[in-house]
Amino acid sequence: MIAPQISSVMAIACAPDGQTLALACGSAVLIADAHDGTVRRVLTGHLAMISTMAFSPDGHTLATSADDNTIRLWDATLAEEIAILVPLPDGGHAVVLPDGSYSLDGEAQGRFWWVIGNHRFEVGELDDHVPAVRRLAPGTPIPRPQASRPQR
């Protein structure tokens, strides 16, 4: 396996098929060919250094954890974010999807909110007014990106 010439790789994960590497470089992830090091995709979204990551058993999902106190799930094939998991201080977590919908497990009041301009809105305040911001029913599965998967 040959990794790209990157000086600040903080973590590496190998897909189960042995064909793909994920390299954490600061707050970004490079998805690279495991044999020649060619970078195929770059995943960005974390606000701080990524410290750990792992592929799912099927190799399509990559989970990353960073110093911004979030865990992000990515479709590694499509280079799209699937969800952001935010831990809540008293236990539980919030899951935020790219379309603005969210789910909660635990008490979020005063700990998780939406910001628009200079205004902060608590959980539930925007649900009836902004269609994209909506709380998902408990147990709703996290949807996968809809685009067709290219062959590796």
TrEMBL record:
Pfam families: WD40. PROSITE patterns: WD_REPEATS_2 (PS50082), WD_REPEATS_REGION (PS50294). The keyword ATP-binding does not apply. Keywords: WD repeat. Coiled coil: none annotated. InterPro entries: WD40/YVTN_repeat-like_dom_sf, WD40_rpt. WD repeats lie at residues 43-84. PANTHER family: TRANSCRIPTION INITIATION FACTOR TFIID, TRANSCRIPTION INITIATION FACTOR TFIID SUBUNIT 5. This is Uncharacterized protein. It comes from Frankia canadensis.
